[in-house]
Amino acid sequence: MTAAAEANENLAALVPELALTGTAVVALVAGSWLPRRRQWIVAVLAAAACGAGLVATAVTTAAGDRQTVFSGTFTVDAATGAGRFTVLGALLLLVAMAVPEIRGHPRETEYHVLLLLTGAGTLVLVGATDLLTLFSGYLLAGIPAYALTGFGKDARGTEAALKYYLMGALLGTTMLAGTALLYAADRTTGYRAAATAADSAPYGLVAVGFVGVLAGLLFKAGAVPAHFWLPDAAAGAPPAVAAYVTTLPKIGALVAGYRLLYEALPAAAGALSVVPAAVAAATMTLGNLAAFFQTEIRRLLAYSAISQVGYLLVPLAVAGRSGLAQQALLLYLAAYAAANLGAFAVLAALPAARGLDDHRGLARRRPVLAAVLVVCLLGLVGTPPTGVFLGKLQVFATAVEGGAGWLAVLAVANTVASLFYYLRWLAPVFAPGEAAAPVNAPAAHGRWPVAAACAAAAVSLALGLAGGAVLPAVQDQLPR
Amino acid sequence: MLSVLTFLPLLVCVLLLALPGSLPDRWCTWTWVATAAVDLALVAVLWAGFEPGGGMQAEQRMRWIPGAGVGYHVGVDGLSLPLLALTCLLFLAAAGYSLRGTRATRAYVCLFLFLQTVCLGVFVALDLILFFVFFDLSIVGMYFVIAGWGHGERARAAALKFFLYTFTGSLALLLGFIGLYLAAEPHTFDLVDLARARPLAGRGGYAALVLLALGVGLAVKTPTVPFHTWLPPAHTEAPAAGSAVLAGVLLKMGTYGFLRIAMPLLPGSWRRYALAIAVVGAVSVVYGALVALAQTDFKRMIAYTSVNHMGYIVLAVGAAGTLAGTDVQARSLAVTGAVVQMVSHGLITGALFLLTGVLYRRGRTYAMDAWSGLAAHTPRFAAVTAVAAFAAVGIPGFSGFVAEFQILTGSLASQAVATAVALLGLLLTAALFLRALRTMFLGTPRLPGSVPVGGPGDLDAREAVPTVTLLAVALVIGVAPRFLLDVVEPAGRTVAELVAR
């Protein structure tokens, strides 16, 4: 690393992160002074911060510059750019989706502040190229999320928050221990330096440390065996928060995991890639099996989210052995986020509908929501022309190219199996008959989640149809 | 031109969805009829300007997702042009048949318009991913047709089975496509480029795996034994127009895939496993006919004869890959026969399925033994059904005879045993259709209790015109096939040569 890169303390490279954290502080102060009926200003501030972040990311991506800042602890490159786009876009949708639940709520400001902080933490995870930055990102993304999960202060939410917190604390400790072991082995926490040091480091120490760090990330992503918190959190939290926990932590954790495998452990990654491969296989299979007979929609979506992590871990399993792995991961993450948020936005628009049968006859009552559900659920299956199809195509291709053809076959088998439970949800939507009356009552401010749902479905389709415009932005390989 | 042809129905579908909700249902159906007619006229123009033996024509190639090796590449040749015409004709027939009205008409019409775009897209696509996109969307569209307008709760189960089966097949196909993509340097999904580069020449094991993936994917869609079990419930539970499109067009995507993708791109493996393919074809022919013979449900019986008829095509493509004991003329004859059989089966079985819909409208049942002496009540219906049945049997004068004669002649030299076994299928089909005609139309008149007072009405114009038109085209092909063979034969020869290289 050159001295110039060492000394690079260019704050302009961190505009999205700074926008989120700065706005969080301003919003917290403003929220304490604003009367309750004007708390919506905080939501506007949060949206503005995301918008500013998106603009800054667009400028950085268009310029195509790549830099590491603050002694190589944070990198701005293609992966960071794609991650920022996805996270900030998702945050915008989450702000819109939460309107019926949050507008006029006594803790409206707190919701947005927590959302901004956890979003900032996710962005840190996406760009971190130093184990300690990674861990601080883990904490910054995690702790506000625990609070958000218990936001409703009801029994289910509290239980979910507690589970989420305990699991996070346990695996956070594991992660910190792994960081310590890697530091002991490599004498550095920076990825670039670790990659060169790894050749002479004791292999056992590196392997154990690596598994420890990965464990924390896998918890965040909701991969087997650290997935138990996810269905409870998705079912217990308000819909917008459920959308959050099934989407955003994955983006941060999986991009961070890819970086770790690709940048910090290239020499050892070949042998250690068996860990993400095994976790991927177990996660996609168990997530699917558990989703089969769920009757509560949010639990079903949570298990679907778990199985999707299985597919998303495939690029990690072939990191460094396939040139397609990076674009597969980044494209799939963006497409998955759009499809999943779209499905949750539909739930946010119909907050009273919790069971599959509550959606009976939705196609006649709310054709727009039904259309969004078709696009998003078939999108989650990977039906063309949605973005997830393109993502899955890349994931299968990268698995075959990386010599993990068995993972591709397993992913195909699981994709077929997943179709079953997505159709279990879609079938009542188009079936004749009516659901119980209170379920149908449109929520106050119900137009916001509907708009978010439409936007998500449109993005999901656009990522598939205009993938040609998106792919070049995520193809630029990370340095190693 | 091709893009206009393909996307016109989708455009109309979007326009229909955007119109206000007060639009009368009849307008929707008439819009569909008009769109299908325009599309058919476009195909006629395309056919008039088509130069037989000129290879790929009306090509259009654009960048779509260059980062993933995917392009928008369409074109038409002697293999796809007849299928395009068949698709447009069948959709027009389905539209005319649907003029009698159905539930939720606008959604129904939009779904069929969407399906038409998707079906045409499969036949014009010259990029594997473009092909796959349309191939997969055809499953989605048909799922909603069966689940939404089929016969109640059983239809939803049949639709689910259909979706799961064919989706599995399509993903196997996708794996095969990825195998081809990764083998090519530079990575590409373009069919023409891949056929030129032959990335898998000399890579035995890998090529065999890719062929297995492609073969399974296409065999599920065709369907051949043992992947056919989704077909009878899906056909039986679908609405009549849906069955006609499913049997007439969607099944052809599988066999078309063999001709368009598997044979030109994997000639070596295709030749090596040609015997297995021919055997699967022959088994499908006989097994489909035997199971059809055991059916008591008229629609289910016709569904099984589809397995039988599609089996001939698989036999032919298998024989076309066998070089020993044969020459290029016999092999191109087999390929030509396969294409003609696709068209012929589409026309005749499409008509038969529409006729079963007529039967169901009269008595709410497909059970053959519920009807007897129907010819006395409905002479026109009996006559048209009898003609369709004889056409399906393959009597001379109809397209089925031309097709099956070419297939059997082309296959006999190279796959003598399989062809001899397949001949048995002809006999069985004749038996089962004759039995069905006798049971339902002859004998003492007896009607199911579900027939309304006043007896079953005979075919009306909206039912007669589509079915008779389809049969008339089958007759024209049977009597004067040159206009079709002139287009197909050069393309058949090209495929036979590509396989032999």
From TrEMBL, chain A:
The keyword NAD applies. One of its GO terms (molecular function) is NADH dehydrogenase (quinone) (non-electrogenic) activity. One of its GO terms (cellular component) is endomembrane system. Its EC number is 7.1.1.-. The chain crosses the membrane at residues 12-34, 41-62, 82-99, 111-129, 164-185, 205-229, 267-293, 300-318, 330-356, 368-391, 403-423, 450-474. It catalyses: a quinone + NADH + 5 H(+)(in) = a quinol + NAD(+) + 4 H(+)(out). GO terms for biological process: ATP synthesis coupled electron transport. Keywords: Cell membrane, Membrane, NAD, Quinone, Translocase, Transmembrane, Transmembrane helix, Transport. Its main location: membrane. It is found in: Cell membrane; Endomembrane system; Membrane. InterPro entries: NADH-Q_OxRdtase_suN/2, ND/Mrp_TM. It is a multi-pass membrane protein. NDH-1 shuttles electrons from NADH, via FMN and iron-sulfur (Fe-S) centers, to quinones in the respiratory chain. The immediate electron acceptor for the enzyme in this species is believed to be a menaquinone. Couples the redox reaction to proton translocation (for every two electrons transferred, four hydrogen ions are translocated across the cytoplasmic membrane), and thus conserves the redox energy in a proton gradient. HAMAP family: NDH1_NuoN_1. Belongs to the complex I subunit 2 family. NDH-1 is composed of 14 different subunits. Subunits NuoA, H, J, K, L, M, N constitute the membrane sector of the complex. This is NADH-quinone oxidoreductase subunit N.
Automatic annotation (TrEMBL), chain B:
It comes from Streptomyces cacaoi. Belongs to the complex I subunit 4 family. The chain crosses the membrane at residues 79-99, 106-123, 129-150, 162-184, 204-220, 240-261, 273-294, 306-326, 338-360, 381-403, 415-437. It is found in: Endomembrane system; Membrane. The gene is nuoM1. Signal peptide: none annotated. This is NADH dehydrogenase subunit M. Residues 125-427 form the NADH:quinone oxidoreductase/Mrp antiporter transmembrane domain. Keywords: Membrane, Transmembrane, Transmembrane helix. One of its GO terms (biological process) is ATP synthesis coupled electron transport. PANTHER family: NADH-UBIQUINONE OXIDOREDUCTASE CHAIN 4. It comes from the Bacteria. It is a multi-pass membrane protein. The lineage of its organism: Bacteria, Bacillati, Actinomycetota, Actinomycetes, Kitasatosporales.
